[in-house]
């Protein structure tokens, strides 16, 4: 079922969803089931599965030369989505990136996803890999998420890269990312919303936000989007703070502010367990306010750790 259909059928009640990472290379599917079995008891409407690009390592070989080797530590997004739908009868949403794909490879991936019966795709540009200073698209690939949305929308209309092909259209519901505190590469929030609107005009049907810890950032973002004519569902993305290191890591990596009240409480904590409890309680309070004010879905970034998310879900759903 499409994410938008889930929202429509729930008639204003807030749904629950989460995002997981594929297991590291070398782990089997049971490592994923172990973390999903408990959380599926709370009936998530859908589960997103992230996609991770190939990365490169340079290893020294005989003669002092360096050999480039491809390393992909989290393969299996499509297979994991298929396994989730088969085992749990819950809609799985694969992420699809610009990075690492030519447009022809993207088209082939879309055909595979359509044949497998997936109803939803999250279209993302993707981040720069470790060997890049800035994101670099594949030669012959999509440069921006907007370009990827346009290609998926064209596939939905039955339009292929080869104009001579006259085929049936797919029927993907397209999700995209939104940034209540702006994307780290955007010059301003106004610019960010401008390009978000273009993605919606190109065919995106819902937005999932980056994590935030101050609900007013989300409410302000939604209001500004509505003022600009972006009227699709905007799903808040949430992550419970779990370690004191995240006070520095999250702002540095994601350019997300952490409220002073939360920072003070975490700094005063006397143990790692206390930090987790503070982060958990903060996220529960965020969730309750978001539900009161009509958020369509609460979407949790799990990092493939679901114990805290299970506790949050037990408190609010």
Characterization of the model:
41% of the residues lie in helices and 18% in strands. It has 317 residues and is of the alpha/beta class. It has an eight-stranded parallel β-barrel, surrounded by five helices. The chain has a two-stranded antiparallel ribbon with strand order 3-4. Strand 1, helix 2 and strand 2 form a beta-alpha-beta unit. The mean pLDDT is 92.
CATH class wording: Alpha Beta
Return residue spans where pLDDT drops below 50 for at least 5 consecutive residues.
Answer: none
Structural category: alpha/beta
Strand content: 15-25%
Number of domains: 1
CA gyration radius, whole angstroms: 20 Å
CATH-derived topology: TIM Barrel
Number of helices: 11
Write the element-wise H/E pattern from the N-terminal end onward: HEHEEEHEHEHEHEHEHHHEH
Basic shape: globular
Helical fraction? 40-55%
| Counted beta strands | 10
Q: Mind summarizing the main beta sheet?
A: 8 strands, parallel, barrel
CATH architecture: Alpha-Beta Barrel
Lateral strand order in the biggest sheet: 1-2-5-6-7-8-9-10
What is the typical, i.e. mean, pLDDT?
A: 92
Distance between the termini: 21 Å
Can you summarize this structure?
This protein has 317 residues and is of the alpha/beta class.
Task: Output the keywords.
41% helix; two-stranded antiparallel sheet; alpha/beta; 317 residues; globular; single chain; 11 helices; TIM Barrel; eight-stranded parallel β-barrel
List the helices and strands and how they pair.
Blueprint lengths: L2 H7 L5 E6 L8 H11 L6 E4 L5 E6 L5 E6 L5 H12 L2 E7 L5 H13 L4 E5 L20 H12 L16 E6 L10 H14 L3 E6 L3 H13 L6 E5 L7 H9 L5 H9 L3 H21 L4 E5 L5 H10 L1
Parallel strand pairs: 1-2, 1-10, 2-5, 5-6, 6-7, 7-8, 8-9, 9-10
Antiparallel strand pairs: 3-4
